[in-house]
Amino acid sequence: MESKLVFLLLLVCVSYTVGDDSDGDSSDSNSSDSNSSGSDGSSSSEDDNYFYPCSSDDLDCIRDYFANTNLCSKVSHEDGKSIHRDVLVAHLPKFNGTFVCLDDTITFYGSSIAAFYVDKKTNNLVMSISCEGINVYTAKAKLAIHVRGHEPVRAEDFINVTYTTEITAVMPNAGRHGVAAASVSSYNINAQPPFELGPEIADNSNEIVKEFVQAVLSDIPTAVAELHLTKAPYLFYVYLQEYICNFGIEYTGML
């Protein structure tokens, strides 16, 4: 009788132990499945929202994408080689000034495509261009300082500046018209880029020009941000149409 009782007690203990181990394994398994599902879920969600037609470092694929979906001619260009443009109008509203930049020489250094994808929700194509340096030498920078109740005060000389920036364009994924309608912004990695003003501007004897130059020098980050309201799209179209595909779009910043 005693032996039967001991046997039953042992059987109960063994059953409890096995059941407890099974529950523990089941819990670990569920936890692992849950984590795996969450990871897959977020990845799947991202894939659902965005379409990546090309790797951002595959310029040939990006050229083909534009050429096949838009009316443009594929082109290529190398960093360090200069590009010429005739005119850009750049505004400095805080400082009441406008530059008409004639005869620009633009040189890109360390450029790459940082992002290239289509947002499926908006059907917008997003393209981001990262540049270690963009040197812009303007042979004739015509400055007009706007004065209340008077004609603008004018000065003219060269400007040489090197920007470090990332330019992002968001455009409807709708052919050439979408590219022409791009909304372009810039993130200026160096808000105080190295620059040089010709003496006819920097050392001008006119008091209004002196005040303008001093105001700009005392707040360079604001001046750079304002200039890029027109310079960012200008530089985007220069890069796109020299490095990727030429759409025949001429952006001058003129309103």
Largest sheet: 7 strands, antiparallel
Helix content range:
40-55%
H/E element order: HEHEEEEEHEEHHHE
The overall number of domains is: 2
Radius of gyration: 30 Å
Helix/strand class: alpha+beta
Here the CATH topology of the largest domain equals Bactericidal permeability-increasing protein, domain 1
Report low-confidence residues grouped into runs of 5 or more: 1-44
How far is the N terminus from the C terminus?
Answer: 105 Å
CATH level 4 superfamily of the largest domain? TULIP domain
Instruction: Kindly estimate the percentage of residues that lie in beta strands according to DSSP.
Output: 35-45%
How many DSSP H or I helices? 6
Characteristic key phrases:
single chain, 255 residues, alpha+beta, Bactericidal permeability-increasing protein, domain 1, 7-stranded antiparallel β-sheet, two-stranded antiparallel ribbon, 9 strands, 42% helix, elongated, disordered N terminus
